[in-house]
Amino acid sequence: MQADRIGVLTGVHFIDGDFAAAEGAIAAGCRFAAGYPITPSTEVVERLASRFPFVGGLFIQMEDEIASSIAIQGAVWAGAKAITVSSGPGISLMAEHIGYAAMTETPCVFVNVQRGGPSTGLPTLPGQADVMQARWGSHGDYAIIALCPNSPQEAFDLAVTAFNFAERYRSPVMLLLDECIGHMLEKVVIPPADEIEVVPRRLTEKKPGDYLPYLPGDNMVPEMVKAGMGHRFHITGLTHDERGYPVMTAAAQEKLVRRLVDKIRLASRDLALYEARWLDDAEVVVLSYGITSRVVHRAVEVARERGAKVGQLRLKTIWPFPEHLIDQLLGGRVRSIVVPELNLGQLVLEVERTTRGRAKVVPIGHAGGTVHEVGVIVEAILEAAK
Amino acid sequence: MSEANTSEIRIAGFGGQGVILAGMILGKGATIFENRHATLVQSFGPEARGGSCSAQVVLSDQPIAYPYVARPRILVAMSQEAFERFAPDLAPNGLLVYEQDLVKVHDLRPDLRSFGIPATRIAEELRRRMVLNIVMVGFVAAVTGLVGVEAARKAVVDSVPKGTEHLNVTAFDKGCEYGRRLIAGGPAGEGKA
Hints:
The complex is a heterodimer of chains A (386) and B (193).
Chain A: E1 11-16, H1 17-27, E2 30-35, H2 42-55, E3 58-61, H3 65-77, E4 81-86, H4 88-104, E5 108-116, E6 122-126, H5 131-136, E7 145-147, H6 152-169, E8 172-178, H7 179-183, E9 185-190, H8 250-265, H9 268-271, E10 274-277, E11 284-288, H10 292-305, E12 310-315, E13 317-319, H11 323-329, E14 336-341, H12 347-355, E15 360-365, H13 374-385
Parallel strand pairs in A: 2-3, 2-4, 4-5, 5-8, 7-8, 11-12, 11-14, 14-15
Antiparallel strand pairs in A: 1-9, 5-6, 7-13, 10-12
Helix pairs in contact in A: 1-2, 1-6, 3-4, 10-13
Chain B: E1 7-14, H1 19-31, E2 37-44, E3 52-60, E4 74-77, H2 80-86, E5 95-99, E6 113-117, H3 119-125, H4 132-144, H5 149-159, H6 165-184
Parallel strand pairs in B: 1-4, 4-5, 5-6
Antiparallel strand pairs in B: 1-3, 2-3
Helix pairs in contact in B: 1-4, 1-5, 3-4, 4-5, 4-6, 5-6
């Protein structure tokens, strides 16, 4: 279906990634947000709080991040699309409820505007060191979807996509900005509402008594209900059967947890959003995401001017990790994959794992606080191209 | 980056002076009112006021891949610290625009041109010191031509709180007028330290 015209600020804007993410959420139909302020993510909820009164939405500043991360899930079961927003330290507090959303299959969006860490780290400066936290931050086995925009425009676009993926897979989705993208202002073109595709919640048409809340349907995803439709069942973080009742057996655990992981993992190709440049003749590929990809863009231009056959693969979807894209890269000319990121080696571990020795993988770690120097990436490319 | 009519600017001063808003107005003027492209990357400390604060602005006719500015063509310095820290980075034949009561220019490279304005004093004459950044934006528009004066004025109106449009447009026009007079004055206005 198409976006509700009321929520869409169609036009040309000059806004930062935080505001753009908020506008994307509203365009996607989000009408509930709960949060607790933290730099550099506060502008997202500021924007939601100022815009919601005009679109019939509700923002609650909660007592902390733990409460925020569960308040949104209450709102979802009441029928809303909902979001919470934070940065590293706050996301750590939300970790418990990210797992709860995965286990209860509550579609919702968590935004993490990454700053330098660990702990309170560098509040106003960038990092990309929450990449593994996004994947594994809550305990237990689960899968999650994580998207990384590299511009305010894409913060808008991928916020819409995050809600659409959340509904389609009934999963929490992590929108991973970094401080640079969050606080960077750039032109954002918001299209007319009828050009924005929005995935509605798939509510069951079954009558109370016939409906099994955790009976997998298409794509292994169960249909949903909302409070007030007349269905009575239990929503629990405990291992449960198709009726939603707790069942403390290995068989129930195997069935449920395997499905929760598989519904995301097996959809990896459908979820993989990316951008590729100059791969045709590439012997070296630089793989990046978020703000780092814009530094890489310049570095690849410089390295090509200096004769290196280098291409660029930019991931917009980092989780589930798009293993097939690495497979497609290899088997031909590509000898090396260079992976700069604003951490000391996180997503590069996935690249190494999926490359399985078929190419040399070159990490370019950076502890964060600023972006890489272009020259450092150029040198690594030229070295790899030798 | 000279292709595609690209300009790189750094605006720097204290937190609370409206450094980021000044950059935002230039970017908004270029993107919304001239249909060009702009990026603004901001850096600031955890303090709300008083710390050093700067914006890196790139304006171009084409989409901008790399939003960082290592050697800006133009530096807008609104504090002494900003001048000391960033003036050495100016590109060859670059331009320094500065608040002349807050910045004491010294040892300027001979290839650089400079234009100063007492923006704080002009803002105080309007009884609102806080509009000094808008005075500065008017001045920058007039002396650099980065963004058309009309586009920049529209961006001011679009960016300031409702009810303060008149004050801000007046501040913008004062800065603009000062800049035009300085340029009309020819070499006498230039290279002034």
